[in-house]
Records
---
Amino acid sequence: MLAKQGTAYYVPHGSHWPIVGSVGLFSLMIGASSWLNEAAFGKYLFLVGVAILVTMMAGWFGNVIAESEGGAYNLKVDKSFRMGMSWFIFSEVMFFAAFFGALFYARSLSVPWLGGEGNNFFTNLMNWESFQAAWPTNGPANVGGDYEIMGPWGLPAINTLILLTSGATITVAHHAIKEGNRRLLNIFLFLTFALGFLFVGLQGYEYYHAYHDLNLTMGSGIYGSTFFMLTGFHGMHVTVGAIMLTVIWFRTMKGHFLPEHHFGFEAAAWYWHFVDVVWLGLFIFVYWL
């Protein structure tokens, strides 16, 4: 429940979790880079970093949940949480804007230039005369060899339907929590993260199909790299969002959140709607057009 502290702002106690998180991130970074360079210890250091980060997140979020349920937070703290989550989602919007910008640059500028558009006629004539400026492409050098594109009307369309459905189920769950209907809340929140994990599983199968049947890999020129960069990072965000919703579901099963005080739920719902909108952009500009 909300703290009855008047206008006082809750100041948290000292915490060791930030330094633990720093150690985990450093271990993960060094481990990942060493693993990519085939160092023997890289894989194990990477896993140690992941374990430290998971421990940090469980402990730190556990402290915040205990403070919230103990009544330490008032409306001013609630407002600061909302501002923090808003800025976080904005940073994520800019993150994907950069990747969509890279896709736009490649499709609308780089590829036409290689094909001789604009002032690049002689460059095309002397270096890439046989290159046809059409998307998708793996460039004049045919980087990665021949491949087939991933069309929209298969698993991508099914995954679109899954995410749109999950957006509806999280909305129903939100209305249920505001009305105090715990049974409906628990059912539709469970459906939401179950659909999220189903999406991730189908995307994993899609990647398997791309690599083994279509010869579409991260090395398939600019099309392959942008395809896996955009869909891969989105899949990672869906995974994170589904884990967040799973934690929120366990909290609702324990009776956490009130109709007038449930920003932990709302923050996860905001993030999930953001993931839905990004996927619509991916479906249109990566798979369809």
---
Amino acid sequence: MTAPPWLSRADVILRPLTLDDAPALHIAHRDADVHRYWSSPAHASEEETRAYTADTIVLGPSWAITQSGGEALGRISLFHVRAGVAEIGIILRRAAQGRGLSATALALVSAHAFANGYHRLVADIDPDNAASLRLFEKAGFVREGVLRQNWITHLGVRDSILMALLKSQTEETP
């Protein structure tokens, strides 16, 4: 698999995610509050984050979210679901939240996906994850439904809010 391209806007730079980013990503993955709505509990060790990062890289293009190309403050991934459809997943450490990094990363990856053959992007979000719901809504994603009892997580059996952004929503009309 080839590495994804570097993407940037202002001082937000998305660079290809590597295993060397695992120690920096562990800051987000070990934080129980940041990891609350994840499918698993917070990571107990840096090795657990390294294994998770390795699995993530194999599943599809993944980028380290950085300011000016430095340390990974989080990551964003594009997981191929089927022809023309991909799911976006994102995590950002607590200290980097509230600065627009996730919104910029989401916009960059969405534009990249649409320019490279995808026509539909989806997100699967826990109904109690208000911050993620707001992030995706502000990016133009539309709530399409609830998948009842969709996940078994460390919080128990959880529903999912399915959100989607269509390429046609982002194209200018004459």
---
Amino acid sequence: MGTNEVAQPGSAARDRILDAAGQLFAEQGFGGATVDEIARRAGVNKAMLYYHVGDKAALFAEVVSTHVSRIRTLVAAALTESDEPRRRLGAIPRAFARAVREHPYLPQLMLREITAGGPNMPDAAIRQIAEVMLMTKQVLDDGASRGAFRRVNPFATHLMLVGAMMFMANALRLRDRFGDKLPLPPASPADLETLSESVLDIVLDGISRKGN
């Protein structure tokens, strides 16, 4: 590996480091992960790891910020694809599902940190999460002003859509074990994208019969 490649912020080595760190943080949490193991999994020495990113706190902050930024970009892009309120609201969980497909360890990583109260969550990531929540609010407000939605709590709605995605991505790993104890309907989806459509259907139309 040449000097120029090592010094390049977006190099393959740096990407490997961040991916290995993300996987280990997901598996063991911030407290359980070690720089030595991250370096081993990434196939680099500790000196290169520190050069590219920094210490464990810097690694965690970079991993989380990178993924949250990616989600924000996906959501913002998805919202430009339609002007119809229901389709625009559906674009939000679909964007999250796409991010999870690209990095399957993301839900476990985020749920570990959120469950702990976010002690290691960088401010940059918090700001971008808030921006995505604001996008949800804007979609809901627009839909309500156009008569497509009734007025609802945007924070609760966002958590129902996105929190469900994160939880179900982890729960899908237990799908076969659930099926052993309680047979699932034949049409039960086995992938997050399809499952997100079921969540969206329930959020948009509820479970009560019309006229009740």
